[in-house]
Amino acid sequence: MAWRAASPRLGAHLLLSRHRHHRGIASCIDPSAGLTEEQKEFQKVALDFATKEMAPHMAEWDEKEIFPVETMRKAAKLGFGGIYVRPDVGGSGLSRLDTSVIFEALSTGCTSTTAYMSIHNMCAWMIDSFGNEEQRHKFCPSLCSMEKFASYCLTEPGSGSDAASLLTSAKRKGDTYVLNGSKAFISGGGDTDVYVVMCRTGGPGPKGISCLVLEKGTPGLSFGKKEKKVGWNSQPTRAVIFEDCVVPVENRLGAEGQGFSIAMKGLNGGRINIASCSLGAAHASVLLAQEHLTVRKQFGEPLANNQYLQFRLAEMATRLVAARLMVRNAARALQEGREDAAVLCSMAKLFATDECFAICNQALQMHGGYGYLKDYAVQQFVRDIRVHQILEGTNEVMRMIVARNLLQV
Ligand SMILES: Cc1cc2nc3c(=O)[nH]c(=O)nc-3n(C[C@H](O)[C@H](O)[C@H](O)COP(=O)(O)OP(=O)(O)OC[C@H]3O[C@@H](n4cnc5c(N)ncnc54)[C@H](O)[C@@H]3O)c2cc1C
């Protein structure tokens, strides 16, 4: 069955390279529409990388649960390890919109790997933005080159959506903090080198939280078993455990009590990035569906001749473009430092991750039974983006943020 294994997996990428001028007409879902020439260049570099370096391996990385360290280091050589980190510490210094365009493009090649890269980029940005000069120069260069990898540690077994209730304690002892507690669901956990950890240095609530940077190998830092997951299999997820783990005070980002605010500022960009990963998966899935409808015949003619399926495809394309506009609008607001940026990021994450999941799922449905086979890429996009509706704040939490803004409650 070599024909099935080769063509549907790579299909999205062969199609991506020729979809822009489908039958001589610009495609209505072209992700380069409205971008500057410079942004089109970043996008082309990222799409080429996704096509050549990621797409051919995405099924194997998923199946064998491979964390593709060397591929990510290659991506970092193109500037994708610290996309919105400042250049003096090795970053690319690009905007949030540029970042979104890049993650969307990379995600067409492997959504799970790109999503991890987005978390890594968020951590590097947090250190760049809230660290002092010494911390920036110590940590950022090796993160931007992806010689080292980072994890973001907020969630705990007893504190998920109510993140400000976290209990991991960091007690001050001279020039150190002594950490006790545990984090759950940490992306990259155990395989990564740098841990950006939110922990309690003060009283209850968000104001008692600080942000510390820990390095792998610190005595008292250990990891749980690797979780078995529905998707996101090219990146490990583990608990991170602290048992009398001693961390120098000089590893604290910002002031004591600033940790929750740092964590949330990281997540504003994180939400745009994860939504961008959903856009890439949805885009690839629309192309796969488009191709399948054209090739597959039932009732004596191509499925593409069926008006019900045509209408569903048109809806998928429309929802994809609407989601992309939301994400890019939020990225611009964040870049401009607008007051409404955080809520726009939440709205974009809510809308894009819900819509893109529905698009990928509909694309799977259009493949019929073949869509349910692992020989076909569409099922992996469905599995990989399901979790985007859950993490970096669930989509219920996104609704809470939007409602609070509207009702001022
Ligand atoms: C694969 C994976 C990777 C992850 N990576 C990371 C990571 O790298 N770092 C990290 O810190 N965390 C990570 N997470 C954790 C993730 O952010 C949390 O799972 C998420 O925030 C939800 O928390 P919870 O699982 O405890 O669910 P809960 O908070 O227990 O929520 C359960 C359900 O109840 C809903 N709910 C809760 N409260 C309300 C409310 N007030 N109103 C309405 N509905 C509500 C939720 O939306 C959800 O649907 C990851 C999770 C997964 C699955």
Automatic annotation (TrEMBL):
Residues 257-407 form the Acyl-CoA dehydrogenase/oxidase C-terminal domain. One of its GO terms (molecular function) is short-chain 2-methyl fatty acyl-CoA dehydrogenase activity. The keyword Oxidoreductase applies. CDD domains: IBD (cd01162). Its EC number is 1.3.8.5. The keyword Flavoprotein applies. It comes from the Eukaryota. Residues 152-245 form the Acyl-CoA oxidase/dehydrogenase middle domain. One of its GO terms (cellular component) is mitochondrion. Its cofactor is FAD. Pathway: Amino-acid degradation; L-valine degradation. Residues 36-147 form the Acyl-CoA dehydrogenase/oxidase N-terminal domain. InterPro entries: Acyl-CoA_DH_CS, Acyl-CoA_Oxase/DH_mid-dom, Acyl-CoA_Oxase/DH_mid-dom_sf, AcylCo_DH-like_C, AcylCo_DH/oxidase_C, AcylCoA_DH/ox_N, AcylCoA_DH/ox_N_sf, AcylCoA_DH/oxidase_NM_dom_sf. It catalyses: propanoyl-CoA + oxidized [electron-transfer flavoprotein] + H(+) = acryloyl-CoA + reduced [electron-transfer flavoprotein]; 2-methylpropanoyl-CoA + oxidized [electron-transfer flavoprotein] + H(+) = 2-methylpropenoyl-CoA + reduced [electron-transfer flavoprotein]; (2S)-2-methylbutanoyl-CoA + oxidized [electron-transfer flavoprotein] + H(+) = (2E)-2-methylbut-2-enoyl-CoA + reduced [electron-transfer flavoprotein]. The active site is at residue 392. One of its GO terms (biological process) is lipid metabolic process. Keywords: Branched-chain amino acid catabolism, FAD, Flavoprotein, Oxidoreductase, Transit peptide. Belongs to the acyl-CoA dehydrogenase family. Isobutyryl-CoA dehydrogenase which catalyzes the conversion of 2-methylpropanoyl-CoA to (2E)-2-methylpropenoyl-CoA in the valine catabolic pathway. To a lesser extent, also able to catalyze the oxidation of (2S)-2-methylbutanoyl-CoA. This is Isobutyryl-CoA dehydrogenase, mitochondrial. It comes from Aythya fuligula. The lineage of its organism: Eukaryota, Metazoa, Chordata, Craniata, Vertebrata. The gene is ACAD8.
